[in-house]
Structure formats: structure tokens, C-alpha cells
Amino acid sequence: MSIFNPNVEKEDHMKKLIFISLLVLIAFSKAAAPDEETERWDDAVREATLKRMGNVTMIDTKNMSGLNFDGKGFTTIPKDIQKLRRLQFLSLNNNNINSLDGLKHTQLKNLQLSGNNIIDIGKPDFPNLHTLNLENNHIMHVDPEEIFKLFPNLKYLNLDKNPLTKENVDELRDAASVIDIKRGPYTTAIKIIADDIGEQYLPHQVMA
User: What CATH superfamily classification does 35-207 receive?
Assistant: First the structure.
């Protein structure tokens, strides 16, 4: 015959409550904690601000107009980039970025992305971008109509060292000529750099 012990039952109940509470805390901390890439981005922005402004107490990263993060090992550009409201120049050459899809910034004018792993430009929203450097990536095709819709103020596009076809480059230049005519004679003609292209720039896994 078992003997009922209210103290044991109470202790078991408390253990269950503590266990459930720990599970909730762990789940909350995982949901609330920023991912490692975002933390690295924030740290890099703060470091760049300190280098520019010196030893200051208040760091106003929102007023940064230019950032150079070449060779920092980034794989993505955080989508909260629009928080840097005055950012006009961003250099991320020689990183491991593979996509621009979903990014948005209304003031960005110059974006340097040479030496990354971009296969497709995607659909970013950079309405004032006039310079885009995509040299030495893995872009196989650029839609000549889509590119100028995505970047209506584009003036300079570097696509050298990408596995593009000559036909695609010719289409891009023809589309640029049409845009130039629409913009009028007093605007700077769109310059497309894409002379060193071809299958030799395909990603290794595609070539294999």
C-alpha cells in the first residue's frame, strides 16, 4: 500500500514549474537575441564611427554617410540598413555576399560589391543608386529591362569578370542607350563595364 506524501507531490510540482520556466526563458532568449551576422554588422558600424569621430561618449551611427567594410567576411547585408538614414556610399568588396534581394535604402548612391558570390541581383530597392560595382561575381544573366527599373538613376554599372554572354551585354547596352535618350542630352550617359566576361567566371560547382 502506497503512502500519500503531500510534500513529495509539492516538490515534484515545483520541479515541473522550474523546468517549464527554464524552457520558456531559453526560447525567449533565442527569439530575442540578434543573429551573429547582425551583431558583427553593428559592431563594424560602431567601430567605423569611432575611427571617424574619435573617442566620443555618444556614437551617432544614423548620421554615417559612408562605410567601408571590404574583406570583413560578411555573407549578407542586414535588412535594417535603412536605419543608417544618411548612408550614401557603402563598400563591401571581397566578402561572401550572395544576394541583394529584399534590401532597401532610399539615399544610397554608390554600392561596391566586387569579389563576392552574387549569382542573381534579385530585387533590392535603391531608387537613388547611380553607381553599382558587381565585378568578379557569378552573375550569369541581367535582365536589361529589370535592371533599369530597379535602379532608375543608374549611371555606372561594372559587370566585368562575370559569366555573362556577349549577347546579354549587348542587350544591356542597347537598353542603356534607350534610357540615355529618354533622360535627355544634358545627362551623363550610362556606362556599362563588361568587356572581360564569359564561362571562365562560372562558379566552380557549375563548371564541374
Answer: Ribonuclease Inhibitor (3.80.10.10)
